[in-house]
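Please check this.
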Amino acid sequence: MNKMTIRDFDFKDKRAIVRVDFNVPLNEQGQVIDDARIEAALPTIRYILANDVKKLILMSHLGRPKGKIVESLRMSPVAASLESLLGEPVAKLNDCVGEAVSSAVESIPQRVIVLENLRFHPEEKAGDESFAGKLAGLADIYVNDAFGTAHRVHASTTKIAKYIPSCIGFLIEKEIQYLTKALHPVKPYVVILGGAKVSDKIEMVDNLIGQVDKILIGGAMAYTFLKSKGTPVGNSRVEDEKIDLAGNILHKAEEKNVKIVLPVDHVVVRSVDNPGTKEIVDEIPDGFIGVDTGPKTINSFVRELKDAKTILWNGPLGIFENPHYAEGTKEIALFLAKLDGATVIVGGGDTASAASEFNVKDKLSHISTGGGASLSFLEGKELPAITAISDKTN
């Protein structure tokens, strides 16, 4: 990747505007309950501050306000959380563009400024160039460090780079470095696929199937694959319209000499809301729903993973949010955390949440901060927000 990075710029006495991904979860009291995305941006923020920037202006979206002001989605709790983590005063403004914002950027004493939720303005998601120009007018240098939105063509992620010199931050640089390893892996290379939908992963599988040695399939998507083979799946969740597609993937894998490993046992219930009906079965009977991967399957997955040098994990292996159905996802997470000599890449989204839930996020090589962006990259697609950044000239 030949893009300008923050190492290529002199920030001394300059104003830098940084697109971060501070779309963090809040509780009913409006407090940040998971600050992982804020922490992920700290290396870039600290580097710019250490290089004597005059003003560091941070911009992000939060939630889905749909172009309107939503009081519960203001950036104030995010700014407070950042101030606590950073150990430096942080000013929070009540808008992201306009004369009052421009004036405040010039006059307030704090070096670090958080703008109001970008998506309070419909122009943000519309990729409006005039709106992007107003954001650019606040600063001398634009830094994009919001990998989670890199697949979006929004004003603050792509259009702003037309107006002022641009570069990427450390987080995006790290994301590209590790996800590239998943596209050009050290072998043996094993991919673990989970989650609900075959359709979400099909383009990624198509792009990787010529390089991967094994694909281990769990989660609800496994039932679509099993049904395509004629295996009974009871009342488990199946994408009926994707059964032929699943069969085609199995056929293509066989042609490419890729080993596909499907579940051989299952944790099932009569009702997801009633864990008291939980059983472990080799074949799912009518009236039962698969909710987790069984112990025999986990053991088989572990055997396939133990000699791998590159592992990509995208999608949980059961309804891990419910502790009654979390064992499969937890066991794989704990095994990967102890695996020596392998690069383990977690593809963001629910899988990243699972890694955090089971306290292994610091023991894995890389956990992507962008579910949709990481999928797009692994599908072989360009990420518009990165394409927009200036190329190095030498």
